[in-house]
Specification:
The chain has helices at 3-20, 23-41, 46-54, 68-94, 100-124, 129-132, 143-153, 159-183, 190-208, 217-234, 239-248, 257-281, 288-297, 299-323, 337-346, 352-361, 372-408; strands at residues 56-57, 66-67. It is an all-alpha fold and 409 residues long. The longest helix has 37 residues, at 372-408. The termini are far apart. The chain crosses the membrane at residues 20-41, 61-83, 103-123, 135-157, 164-184, 190-207, 214-231, 237-256, 268-289, 301-323, 335-358, 378-395.
Length: 409
């Protein structure tokens, strides 16, 4: 590459990375990866897709001879959860979660948005221990997808709505992380877990020496990788390592290490990690009309669709309404209940974390362990699209209302 070509390419690379830092671009890439996986998995070349997903790479001595699909779920998603952990810590220290009065409503709404879908799923699957294993699948909200939809349709919506949705989704992710750590790990290997504390502590110390001046990527990356390997070997789901690492990063009000890490990793997470996970997780063979009918008749699929589309919105909106009946608790004065209804529908976009929990609940869901896995994925995709469309319709109407009000002023 000539120097002139390099100079031309650099602004283009900067433009692409700036674009990948937006929720809208990340949401579209996620959608594109999902569509590609579904088309490939339902084409005459489906065996090639399965072979690619099940291709095993990695050192067997470290128990890391994993399939590409497992690397995407355990490894690449750790980057996504690292960024979620940074966002959570920032909200706790400097954002909406710092003020208990402001945080109360979205935090409680997140809890309601987890509890009601889980309860609805359990009611649909009551009496069947096998299908009850998927109770946590419809509890999560996909930050990237939900904020992408809000960003596309909400040019004139109150900024308080985005803050509410972001805070709710961050708390929602925290609850999902706790659920994964408590219910979806293997047999705990305490030695590996204690061993992970050593590189984790070194990662933390390196970020604090002279304000993180010595925290170079070539020092942080090996420590983060070793933490991930040891957590993976401990029996706790490896994505939890991403959160643990994030919580050790110092979080100042000024630009610091946390901001540098987020700035550098956000394009990789949105442009590579999450789309690749979706590509390997969402490739479900539908089996034509018979296959779709089989999925629709499965109580797992029915429970997921009802929980994400109905349970999420009822849980979020109902909890918010109940809390605002209390003295001193209120929504932002520019936000109306019709706005909240649209946001509540968007929380039913489960997708990334829901797909991960489906794989953990039903042994990967590729047919070798349980047919419920594939049915669960079909239901997650259908419910997420339906929730996104319903939320977009409501918020589009509200956006027109707010735009007319702004123009009248």
């Amino acid at each position: 590459m000539t120097p002139t070509t390099s100079l031309r390419a650099r602004p283009e690379r900067l433009r692409v990375t700036r674009l990948l830092r937006s929720e809208t671009a990340g949401g579209f890439l996620l959608l594109a990866a999902t569509v590609l996986a579904l088309l490939w998995a339902n084409s005459p070349w489906a065996p090639a897709y399965t072979a690619l997903r099940e291709l095993r790479i990695g050192p067997a001595a470290w128990h890391l001879d994993l399939s590409l699909g497992a690397w995407a779920a355990d490894g690449l998603l750790a980057v996504f959860f690292f960024l979620a952990g940074l966002e959570l810590k920032r909200e706790l220290l400097h954002g909406e979660l710092r003020d208990p009065r402001k945080a109360l409503v979205p935090v409680a709404a997140a809890v309601g948005g987890v509890a009601v879908p889980a309860l609805l799923y359990v009611l649909v699957n009551a009496g069947n221990p096998e299908t009850l294993a998927g109770w946590a699948i419809p509890t999560a909200t996909d930050i990237a997808f939900a904020l992408a939809v809000l960003g596309v349709v909400g040019s004139h919506l109150p900024a308080a709505l985005r803050t509410f949705l972001l805070t709710l989704a961050v708390v929602d992710d925290l609850i999902a992380i706790v659920i994964i750590a408590l219910f979806y790990g293997g047999a705990l290997q305490l030695g590996y877990l204690l061993g992970a504390l050593i590189p984790l502590a070194a990662f933390s110390v390196l970020g604090r020496i002279r304000g993180g001046r010595y925290a170079r990527w070539w020092l942080l990356l090996p420590l983060a990788a070793l933490t991930w390997v040891l957590v993976h070997s401990s029996g706790i789901h490896a994505t939890v390592a991403g959160v643990l690492l994030a919580l050790t990063v110092p979080m100042g009000k000024d630009l610091g290490l946390a901001d540098r890490l987020e700035h550098g990793l956000r394009p990789f997470s949105a442009g590579v990690a999450v789309p690749l996970f979706a590509f390997f997780a969402a490739g479900v063979g539908l089996g034509g009309l018979d296959g779709v009918a089989s999925a629709a008749a499965d109580p797992v699929a029915l429970g997921i669709v009802l929980a994400l589309v109905v349970g999420k919105s009822v849980g979020v909106l109902g909890t918010t309404f109940a809390l605002t009946r209390l003295p001193g608790v209120a929504l932002d004065r520019v936000v109306r209940w019709a706005d909240m209804a649209g946001v509540a529908l968007l929380t039913g976009v489960g997708f990334t974390v829901s797909l991960l929990v489906a794989e953990l609940s039903f042994g990967g869901g590729h047919g070798e362990d349980s047919p419920h896995g594939d049915h669960a994925k079909v239901a997650i995709l259908a419910a997420s699209v339906l929730a996104a469309l319903l939320g977009a319709v409501v918020l589009r109407m509200r956006n027109r209302h707010h735009r007319r009000r702004a123009e009248a002023l």
